[in-house]
């Protein structure tokens, strides 16, 4: 049995296999050919942190695969009231076939997975957001990019999205530049892990504080909010520290011709991205949002097949 906690747990071939499965299921869905890959299975969706895209995509996805999704906020279950995580895992995994959890701490996911009888999927943690990266990868491929030709630039906070881009690039072997303000770099242990992976995959990983250097020649430019949930008290300081890190028209001019721009949403126009750049790349951004649905269906079906294979 396999879990989906971080892309570091998967080989290049497995990531591409999951991607292609998602693309296949998407093609079928667009033809209104909804195959019941997960017929009558139950997905428990645990939310410590709220979300539009995660909630809708996993719920709709499970239904389109022939199963059922159960929404569980931390106010609904005992995980938010002192029950040990391992007990929650052992209870839910006896009643449901899959668990997706969107949590405050990555350690919560690891504890769920350790004691669960069924696959656990990371819907977001403070360390990683692998489901989003599968959607980003799907979008890049659909926009005509070959995986080994991707030159991605991540601009902004060295957060869970930056960490996930590090895992994706270092596993698949493409080039990644990350530009952050001083003091907002990705975690050292995750950077070191990416560098170790890159020695095998041939990936090129660069960290800089120069946004122009990062974006120059990139064919994928991406960013994330500067103030995530739980960081509201730091907003004013962060806005000051991130001055000059807005992806605007002048910065995008440095990217490769026909470069795509991705954003995991929600986007705060005028902060991490300008209104003009967002609207110029809206088709890509909202295709990326839709691909959460299709990429995650690929993840769920793939995990089910590993269990039953």
UniProtKB/TrEMBL annotation:
The answer on whether this UniProt entry bears the keyword S-adenosyl-L-methionine reads: no
Q: Which reaction does it catalyse?
A: carbamoyl phosphate + L-ornithine = L-citrulline + phosphate + H(+)
Q: What is its main location?
A: cytoplasm
User: What residues form the membrane-spanning segments?
Assistant: none
Q: What pathway does this protein act in?
A: Amino-acid biosynthesis; L-arginine biosynthesis; L-arginine from L-ornithine and carbamoyl phosphate: step 1/3
Which GO MF terms does the UniProt record name?
A: amino acid binding; ornithine carbamoyltransferase activity
Query: Could you tell me which residue ranges the Aspartate/ornithine carbamoyltransferase Asp/Orn-binding domain spans?
Result: 149-303
User: What's the EC number here?
Assistant: 2.1.3.3
InterPro entries linked: Asp/Orn_carbamoyltranf_P-bd, Asp/Orn_carbamoylTrfase, Asp/Orn_carbamoylTrfase_sf, Asp_carbamoyltransf_Asp/Orn-bd, Orn/put_carbamltrans, OTCase_ArgI
Please give the superkingdom of this protein's source. Bacteria
Q: Name one GO biological process term.
A: L-arginine biosynthetic process via ornithine
Q: Which cellular component terms (GO) are annotated to the entry?
A: cytoplasm
Enzyme class, first EC level, given as a word: transferase
Binding positions (carbamoyl phosphate): 51-54, 78, 102, 129-132, 264-265, 292
Protein residues bound to L-ornithine = 160, 224, 228-229
Q: Which UniProt keywords apply?
A: Cytoplasm, Transferase
Q: Name one Pfam family in it.
A: OTCace
Q: Where in the cell is it found?
A: Cytoplasm
Q: Record keywords: Cytoplasm included? A: yes
Which family, according to the similarity comment?
A: Belongs to the aspartate/ornithine carbamoyltransferase superfamily. OTCase family.
- What is the official name of this protein in its record? Ornithine carbamoyltransferase
> Which species?
Campylobacter showae CSUNSWCD
Q: What's the source species' lineage?
A: Bacteria, Pseudomonadati, Campylobacterota, Epsilonproteobacteria, Campylobacterales
């Amino acid at each position: 049995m396999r879990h989906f906690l971080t892309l570091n747990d998967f080989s290049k071939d497995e990531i591409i296999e999951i991607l292609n499965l998602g693309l296949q299921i998407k093609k079928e869905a667009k033809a209104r050919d909804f195959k019941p890959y997960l017929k009558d299975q139950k997905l428990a969706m645990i939310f410590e942190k709220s979300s539009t895209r995660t909630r809708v995509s996993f719920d709709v996805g499970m239904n389109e695969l022939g199963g059922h999704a159960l929404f569980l906020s931390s106010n609904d279950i005992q995980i938010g009231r002192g029950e040990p995580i391992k007990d929650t895992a052992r209870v839910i995994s006896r009643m449901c076939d899959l668990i997706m959890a969107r949590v405050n701490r990555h350690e919560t996911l690891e504890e769920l997975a350790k004691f669960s009888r069924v696959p656990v999927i990371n819907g977001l943690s403070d360390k990683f957001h692998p489901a989003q990266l599968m959607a980003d990868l799907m979008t890049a491929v659909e926009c005509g990019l070959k995986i080994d030709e991707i030159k991605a630039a991540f601009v902004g906070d060295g957060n869970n999205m930056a960490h996930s881009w590090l895992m994706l690039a270092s596993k698949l072997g493409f080039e990644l530049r990350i530009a952050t303000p001083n003091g907002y770099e990705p975690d050292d242990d995750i950077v070191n892990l990416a560098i170790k992976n890159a020695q095998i995959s041939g990936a090129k990983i660069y960290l800089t504080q120069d946004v122009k250097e990062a974006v120059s020649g990139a064919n994928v430019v991406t960013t994330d909010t500067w103030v995530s949930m739980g960081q509201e008290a730091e907003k004013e300081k962060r806005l000051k520290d991130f001055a000059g890190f807005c992806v605007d028209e002048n910065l995008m001019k440095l990217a490769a011709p026909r470069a795509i721009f991705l954003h995991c949403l929600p986007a705060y126009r005028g902060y991490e991205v300008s209104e003009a750049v967002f609207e110029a790349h809206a088709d890509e951004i909202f295709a990326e949002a839709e691909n959460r649905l299709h990429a995650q269906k690929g993840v769920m079906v793939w995990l089910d097949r590993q269990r039953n294979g």
